[in-house]
Design a protein that fits this description.
The protein is an alpha/beta fold. It has four domains: 5-106; 111-203, no CATH class; 233-379, Immunoglobulins (Immunoglobulin-like, Sandwich); 541-745, Rossmann fold (3-Layer(aba) Sandwich). It contains 20 helices and 35 strands. The longest helix is centred in the middle third of the chain and has 22 residues, at 449-470. The chain is globular.
Length: 747
């Protein structure tokens, strides 16, 4: 009797459980036979495509059934899986991995993907931990290491390390687990030249990583953090197929998303640039958010809990499986469609394009148009931000859809509703920024106690009004119920299409029937709040070797304070150009592509009519986003810098004639790892304090411990609040970047 394909996974579970429970009763010869079968069939199951995985599992079951001396429970589990399957059966990656985990619980037959590289990396790490080992562990390791150094097999050495240190040094077990694979592995036994001992002088300065990122990550203590578990990075193209026009009466219009090794013809066209993504080998989630369409996953990939999502595998070679979503329009008019890509609950890229739902087709229906999308970030393994609020602008320019994702899985692309503004947001927020700028000009010693109290109350009023008008009902309901409380004090990224909202000062506040339900501090105080613009993913690391301080000669004391600060930093680490004075010098530094920090300390303003003409005042004139040309951006893309504009209005993003503009958009689209700016005028004295506090905590200077970017930015903000809460400078600063990322000094 054949085995049911649609029950193959469940039958493997049951057989594995029966084998574990009755293992001691099996004859030794049968035990060895089971181990051989798992070693033979496990890689076949892993390597098969979703349609062929059931057949590979059935082949394993048939081989087990042919063994002699099987106990009754194992035979019963095999018998229960017999039968005829109706239709076609697919086994997704998650089900496959669960089945392989069940087999692994009987016998771990996985091999090592890169045994030599992993062995060398662990030798170095254990050598760093040598002083913490007891004498017995040291002696046993030295014997094991000597045998490996004299020509032993790397996989034997790794198995010995796991046995010796797996329970003592957590990084050993973690690295070995990450280094194992079910994929077919052929060990050639070729011994690479290696030092006789990790302590031998010939090994000094060498660093070995499985999948080495661009730079090693340096921890707060100056030692190498483990990068052994970083998966391999691959470059892929997101090929999207969808018509420019859809009839309002059409049903189930297919939208095809194909993540492939090459860019295909006939896709949603791009005016310039590419749709290239840098991804890691493993699972990729694809989500489609389409304005006024019903969206459901149709074919390809594995279904996601959200009907508008699907999962596909990103492999080291070859294309991912195409995914087809079916879109049914609900209303006529221009619509916006957004496609989001997530790995490990981290947004690694997004694409957006427009399509029109019509009542009558034009004579010719072309392809939808998609703007350029730059490369997404290669992540180095930092934890995903605890919360990610995606704010998608809809076609009318006044409506926004809110989607929440959390690292703990409680929220996974949870749609929390829409908000429609009553008027053009530019005019409203321009008035708010002007009022806050006027408050920022007044220092604490220039206000009476009554004026200080009035200013504080005004900031609270603005924040509460923003909460009332900008956050959708379902988001407020989650907050009111306390469901966001576990995430307070942690990373919160707002990835947005809108350039206007001062999220940092939004203050949760709600009253009902004259009773205050809650009245809390603003979001930037409740969370490690950061921003990002839709498009590429946010990088999570940057190693700084060289910095540029742009500070034209000025009579402001704060500018001189920042110059003096960086001259002190220059004596501690890195190479610095201090100060750079002119626009020509700034552009030369950008085109060199060798600086990982650009810090601007100067005057600036925001040009409302055209954000790309917003100006920074330097000694020979003004620097504007429109001055940063293609060759500048190409070089910036290579250096991926942190850009800190300590200038008035430097963080505001506006609309140019055709697109989002301003300094934040300029540098992020040029590949910046992070951007810091301000939304309105800032107090000069407080601005200098903020920069010092931020960098000291970022790099562990001034007696502080090195912190993540989000922690350092939060601490600097709170230091300004403690100095003068009534001055809105502490609310003005915005951080575009990964709050869990690190920006460190490197050699």
């Amino acid at each position: 009797m054949p085995y049911r394909r649609d029950q193959a996974v469940q039958t493997v579970f049951a057989v594995a459980a029966a084998l574990r429970a009755n293992w001691a009763a099996l004859p030794v010869a049968t035990q060895e036979a089971v181990r051989r079968l798992i070693a033979q069939h496990g890689p076949d199951i892993y390597d098969a495509d979703p349609l062929n995985r059931p057949s590979k599992m059935i082949a394993f079951l048939e081989a087990v059934a042919a063994l002699p001396s099987l106990p009754g429970p194992v035979l019963d589990a095999l018998k229960a899986g017999e039968g005829i399957s109706p239709g076609i059966t697919r086994v997704g990656d998650e089900q496959r991995d669960q089945a392989l985990a069940a087999l692994r619980s009987v016998h771990d037959a996985r091999g090592y993907a890169s045994p030599d590289e992993l062995a060398e990396a662990l030798r170095r790490r254990i050598a760093h931990s040598y002083a913490s080992l007891d004498s017995v562990a040291r002696a046993r390791w030295e014997v094991l290491d000597r045998a490996y150094a004299e020509g032993g097999r790397a996989d034997d050495y790794l198995n010995g390390l796991d046995s010796l240190f797996g329970d003592r040094l957590p990084f050993v077990r973690e690295a070995i687990e990450a280094g194992k694979t079910w994929a077919p592995v052929t060990y050639r036994g070729i011994s690479k030249p290696r030092p006789q001992s990790p302590f031998d002088e010939s090994s000094e300065g060498q660093q070995f990583f499985i999948a080495r990122p661009k730079d090693p990550i340096v921890g707060a203590d100056g030692g190498l953090e483990s990068v052994l578990t970083v998966p391999a990075a691959v470059r892929r193209f997101a090929n999207v197929y969808f018509p420019a026009q859809v009839h309002v009466a059409q049903q189930a219009v297919p939208l095809i998303v194909h993540v492939a090794q090459g860019a295909a013809e006939g896709t949603v066209s791009v005016r310039e640039g590419s749709r290239e993504l840098v991804l890691t080998v493993g699972e990729l989630s694809v989500f489609v958010h389409a304005e006024d369409f019903d969206v459901r996953h149709g074919l390809g990939g594995e279904a996601h809990d959200a009907p508008f999502g699907a999962k596909v595998a990103v492999r080291a070679s070859g294309d991912s499986e195409p995914v087809i979503f079916f879109l049914t329009p609900r209303a006529a008019g221009p619509k916006r469609i957004s496609i989001e890509f997530y790995q490990a609950r981290r947004c690694v890229g997004s694409l957006a394009f427009g399509a029109e739902v019509v009542t009558n087709f034009a004579s010719e229906v072309g392809r939808a148009q998609m703007p350029a999308v730059k490369l997404s970030a290669v992540t180095a393994g930092a934890a995903a931000p605890e919360l990610n609020l995606r704010v998608i602008a809809l076609g009318d320019g006044l409506s926004y859809e809110y989607i929440l994702t959390s690292a703990d899985g409680r929220y996974d692309q949870r749609k929390l509703g829409r908000v429609t503004l009553r008027s053009d947001p530019r005019a409203y927020f321009r008035a708010v920024a002007d009022e806050l700028s006027s408050l920022a000009r007044i220092s604490a010693d220039e206000r009476t106690p009554e004026e200080t109290g009035a200013a504080s109350r005004r900031l609270q009023e603005i924040g509460a009004r923003l909460w009332d008008e900008l956050l959708p009902f379902d988001f407020k309901a989650e907050y009111r119920a306390g469901n966001l409380d576990p995430h307070k004090g942690k990373g919160f990224v707002i990835t947005s299409d809108e350039p206007w909202i001062p999220w940092e000062m939004v203050r949760p506040f709600e009253r009902e029937r004259g009773r205050t339900l809650y009245s809390d501090p603003p979001l930037c105080e409740l969370f490690r709040l950061s921003r990002w613009l839709s498009g590429s993913g946010a990088p999570d690391r940057l190693t700084v070797r060289r910095g540029v301080v742009v500070a034209p000669r000025d009579n402001l004391q704060s500018v001189q304070e920042e110059i003096d600060y960086f001259r002190q930093v220059d004596q501690l680490a890195g190479e610095w150009s201090i100060p750079v004075l002119t626009t020509a010098e700034v552009r030369r530094e950008m085109q060199a592509g060798s600086a990982q920090i650009f810090h601007f300390s100067c005057h600036g303003n925001f040009q409302v009519d055209d954000a790309d003409e917003s100006r920074l005042k330097l000694e020979d004139g003004f620097l504007m986003p429109s001055n940063i040309r293609f060759d500048d951006r190409l070089a910036l893309w290579q250096s991926a810098p942190l850009v800190f504009l300590n200038a008035c209005h430097a963080g505001r993003v506006g609309l140019t004639i055709t697109r989002l503009g301003g300094w934040a958009e300029c540098f992020i689209q040029a590949g910046a790892t992070a951007f810091v700016g301000s939304l309105w005028e800032i107090n000069d004295k407080l601005a200098a304090r903020f920069a010092r506090e931020f960098y000291d905590r970022l790099w562990g200077l001034g007696g502080h411990t090195a912190q993540t970017a989000g922690e350092a930015f939060y601490a600097a903000r709170m230091a300004l609040k403690a100095e003068d809460e009534a001055n809105p400078t502490w609310l003005a600063y915005v951080f575009y970047g990964d709050p869990n990322g690190r920006i460190v000094f490197g050699s």
